[in-house]
Design brief:
two-stranded antiparallel ribbon; 6 strands; alpha+beta; 137 residues; 1 helix
Length: 137
Amino acid sequence: RDINDNHVGIDVDGLVSKTSSPTGYTENSIQGFRNLSLISGKAMQVWVHYDGVQKQINVAVAPVNETMYVGFSSSTGKFFSSHYILGWSLKVNGQAHRLDLSQLPRLPHMKKKQKSIPLTTGLLFICLFFLSILVFA
């Protein structure tokens, strides 16, 4: 069972998390845990470290001030959301290489949903038709 709507969970062979934690980070200069909203639309970095010998996986999440987006498997419940993997760094049994953010592609822009011209025009003519019946009847 999910601990809340904003968490990182490790799921094995199903959708029930073996372990999960609220999504957030700590900073060296600021004391305490800082929440990081996964549906905020803000850029964030995610590191996934897997130690095959110890059979241990660690996930770290932090905000970035530069544009970068990372996504894996995710869900947002009732909300529509898009997740993109624009950079990937993986090292089994070791430290993953740091990504050069300036070399990553830009995030694709979402197009605004356009109104249907035939539907809009059709509704206009229907309204004018009924209005003319009321005026001339």
